[in-house]
């Protein structure tokens, strides 16, 4: 049986509407709450977004776990549960893009639905947690441990590759002629080591 987690704020009713949304929007505007105003979509039927931003820690963990970030309309690895489809239908007009973050080889079987605002290349792009589903949803602490292991392995691989390159240059050093050093040939330059 597939389990589903959704990430609406507590004021959200089951059908995805924000309870007292009209009153909240009126108060936000009358109080001049600019930060809260950003959470209201700009269409003719103002709606307050019920989804929370992804924390930096969540972004790092989920980005490390899920290399594939597929637009929801292109995602076809497995059926998306009905409740997640309902969340997507509600959220589609609140975000620039909806993506399913997942692992291509299904090592982690709990894909997540993410709402994105802003250009993918921009440092100001915002990510919002919408939903997560799977046979058994791993607790975030366990996911963080798996992500740390993945990041550690990637860093180790990159450092070992760098060591091999430096060792190769070091091994070739005795073969370089004095003239190579004097002429400043590329192979004779000392690499910068951080």
List the helices and strands and how they pair.
Elements lengths: L2 E4 L14 H10 L3 H4 L18 H10 L2 E4 L10 H10 L5 E6 L9 E6 L8 E9 L5 H33 L5 H6 L11
Antiparallel strand pairs: 1-5, 2-3, 3-4, 4-5
Helix pairs in contact: 3-5
List keywords for this structure.
194 residues; 5-stranded antiparallel beta sheet; single chain; 6 helices; 2 domains; alpha+beta
β content, as a range?
5-15%
Quaternary assembly:
single chain
Strand order of the largest sheet: 1-5-4-3-2
**C-alpha termini separation:** 50 Å
Q: How many H/I helical runs?
A: 6
Strand element count: 5
| SS content category | alpha+beta
What is the chain-wise order of helices and strands? EHHHEHEEEHH
- Taking pLDDT < 50 over at least 5 consecutive residues as the criterion, the unreliable ranges are none
Average residue-wise pLDDT: 82
Estimate the global geometry from the Cα principal axes: elongated
Helix % is 25-40%
Task: Indicate how many domains the architecture comprises.
Answer: 2
